[in-house]
């Protein structure tokens, strides 16, 4: 988000987001989950998946694509595995439920692997990895999305932006957190840059014929993580998300999704799949041993030698610094969202 964007207090944004979702008919439980996930994203600086998505979700609730009052169903499939049926509601609701189920399974089996089906847009995957880590569990969360990313050397949309998020508890500190798209940037970053009329970085997006562009209005396709030289890594990692969230759950492949944006159909559910893996450290080396080890690891990492002018950070350090800044100074909001929330 541009530094000159207007900033608003977290509490005000939470109130306005909840109000707009309530006006759109979302149940109390589902809108609370969506608000929680969006505010997480906005606070840690992932503006593409933050409060700016409120308008989109409200449109989908109004059009019928999203069930306003989803009734989640859980089916345990094994000692450490389960499926959550999202009832075509807001994806945040089903995803947070999957983390809760995963923790219940992990407390007994050591691991809880939970698939989600008949869901919708997940938002920031890190919100769900964080939910597990804050409760003391090592947690992985992923989803696949509609095709918008080319393969390495490809000239057509194939994978979605397909995020991978991992989080782990750290005694006396905020969790270790890695939340990354397997594309060069998220699609919502392009939408945000269009709203701000801001040029895209080099090597992250392409026109429909596969030519690289920095114009957000011309960009129709993203490049995989690693760009033109090392994009084979991002393209393969995108397939990991598809493996877990679509193939294991029996849901929708990237290429078969109804597009999130741009189509006329806003009434047909998308049957998105997600996947959450929750691990209880007590069932491995032990929580105390794990806690001491990750603390030593992070201390060593942060004390590592740096090159001139450089800095080393653990995954999550940037996010927590940004969260502290935004809690103190306010969350920047783009013009379209300002108008929709009535700020």
Automatic annotation (TrEMBL):
Keywords: Oxidoreductase. The keyword Metal-binding does not apply. SUPFAM superfamilies: L-sulfolactate dehydrogenase-like (SSF89733). InterPro entries: Mal/L-sulf/L-lact_DH-like_ah, Mal/L-sulf/L-lact_DH-like_NADP, Mal/L-sulfo/L-lacto_DH-like_sf, Malate/L-lactate_DH-like. GO terms for molecular function: oxidoreductase activity. Pfam families: Ldh_2. Belongs to the LDH2/MDH2 oxidoreductase family. This is Ldh family oxidoreductase. It comes from Devosia ureilytica.
């Amino acid at each position: 988000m541009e530094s000159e964007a207007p900033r608003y207090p977290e509490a005000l944004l939470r109130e306005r987001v909840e109000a707009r979702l309530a006006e759109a008919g979302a149940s109390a439980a589902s809108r609370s989950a969506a608000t929680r996930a969006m505010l997480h994203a906005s606070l840690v600086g992932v503006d593409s998946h933050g409060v700016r998505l409120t308008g989109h979700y409200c449109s989908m609730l109004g059009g019928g694509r999203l069930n306003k009052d989803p009734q989640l169903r859980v089916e345990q499939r094994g000692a450490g595995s389960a499926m959550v049926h999202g009832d075509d509601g807001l994806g945040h609701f089903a995803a947070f439920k999957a983390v809760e189920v995963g923790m219940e399974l992990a407390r007994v089996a050591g691991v809880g692997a939970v698939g989600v089906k008949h869901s919708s847009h997940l938002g920031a995957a890190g919100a769900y990895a964080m939910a597990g880590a804050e409760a003391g569990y090592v947690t992985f969360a992923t989803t696949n999305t509609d095709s918008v990313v080319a393969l390495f050397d490809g000239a057509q949309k194939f994978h979605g932006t397909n995020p991978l998020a991992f989080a782990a508890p750290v005694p006396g500190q905020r969790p270790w957190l890695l939340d990354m798209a397997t594309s060069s940037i998220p699609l919502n970053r392009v939408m945000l840059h269009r709203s701000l009329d801001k040029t895209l970085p080099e090597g992250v997006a392409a026109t429909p014929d596969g030519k690289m562009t920095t114009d957000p209005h011309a960009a129709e396709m993203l490049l995989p993580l690693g760009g033109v030289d090392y994009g084979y890594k991002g393209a393969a990692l995108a397939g990991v998300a598809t493996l877990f969230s679509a193939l294991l759950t029996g849901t929708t492949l990237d290429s078969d999704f109804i597009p999130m944006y741009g189509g006329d159909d806003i009434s047909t559910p998308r049957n998105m799949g997600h996947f959450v893996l929750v691990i209880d450290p007590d069932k491995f080396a032990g929580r105390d041993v794990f806690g001491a080890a990750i603390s030593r690891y992070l201390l060593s990492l942060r004390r590592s030698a740096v090159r001139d002018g450089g800095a080393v950070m653990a995954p999550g350090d940037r996010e927590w610094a940004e969260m502290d800044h935004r809690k103190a100074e306010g969350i920047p909001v783009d013009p379209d969202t300002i108008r929709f929330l009535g700020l």
